Amino acid sequence: MQTKKVSPLIALIPVVFLIATLMYAIRAYEAAPHIPLFTSAIVAAIVAMTMLGSKWSDIEEGIVDTIKMSMGAIIILMIIGMVIGTWIISGVVPTMIFFGLKILSPSIFLVATLLMCSIVSLATGSSWTTAGTVGIALMGVGMGLGIPAPMIGGAIISGAYFGDKMSPLSDTTNLAPAMAGAKLFDHIKHMLYTTGPAYIISAIGFLILGFRFGGNEMNLELIDQINVGLQQSFALNPLLLLVPIITIGIVIMKVPAIPGLFLGAILGGLAAMMFQGANVGDVINALHYGFVSETGNEVVDYLLTRGGLSSMMYTISLILCAMTFGGVMEKTGMLEALANVILGFAKSTGLLVTSVIGSAIFMNLLAGDQYLAIVIPGRMFKDAFDQRGLAPKNLSRCLEDSGTLTSALIPWNTCGAFMIGTLGLQPWTYVPFCFLNILNPLISIFYGFTGITMVKADEEVVGKVETA
Hints:
- With 468 residues, the protein is mainly α.
- The chain has helices at 8-29, 34-51, 56-69, 71-89, 92-101, 109-124, 127-144, 149-166, 171-180, 184-210, 221-233, 242-252, 257-275, 280-289, 298-304, 313-331, 334-343, 349-366, 370-387, 392-404, 414-423, 435-450, 457-467.
- Helix content is 74%, strand content 0%.
């Protein structure tokens, strides 16, 4: 191990290098963050060996130990890819989208947009897919009604990120508890305390905004195109909704995430053979490679061409690169040195929560990637939550309340750039209408200062014993 005390200025060297290389690679070349992140890990190792006296064998040990902590999330992500593949080939996701689109009404267009995007995002676990498919259609419909684009964009993004945040199929929803040391479904249930009120307030806000547009006529051409494409390609049947219902029921029965979600994938495969006429080979390909839609309808094909174990390799490799960087920083004491500076200001639980949320937003602003906004603060503040006796799900909730939700508000962040480009929005104009994304971090900070829903670690243990 190193023989010198770690100075915060030395610890900042790899962080500054990371931020600079990420911003340059992403903004100048639209490159993936993997190589800048891995290169920054090498820079951190060089700094540790040359300036702190660390040994490579210790650094490598730290990398391996840190990666081990993420292996549960990585296995779950692989299974999630399988679930998405079979739920599409079986018609489960198309059926959810089809019936979700049926609820459109001119008088409640904005709140209906919020609800539909929530449904699609919950089913797919992806805010990007939701915005890039149903979101595009809803933008055209809403603008035809004379509703301002920023309002429509705010409703789409709020709904898309609600599902992205609450769906067990979402990569960030799996990543946050992995960083904090919490369990997936404990994490999801705990997020209801902040996301639930924020969602209700958002729905009321969109309902009030939508009143002025209630008398306008709606052009359903774009929505009809999607529905026709779905009907031509799948045997849509309400019975298919039993697959997600049973899967959710399994989760409620406290079946562990890995076997529970894999059973959901198997149920999707059986439904594909029963309702869509798929054979075993089709299901195996969907599990591995995902589903490829060839309806000829561009929107439908973009929406449904996804899933499969292989589709998760991008996210898994990103996690491995991030954990490599985090492993070096943690093992050499550089992460602790930086955390101590910030923690010096966190004299209470409220300030600790504020520090986590502020750090995640800071990473979204400078690093431009929501994964790093979850990974780095998650590793930095884990010990501080443990020392205060706070359950890990408190930290994982804070990471998602800020790291996931604020990423879409920043134009140069990968998420913000995607939303602006896909929905045809102007930077910043839509931000005031992203009610859920704004309210969630504020409610989380309020809970931190008041102590509401801030579960202690010993209380969590007692609760588990009582329900066992």
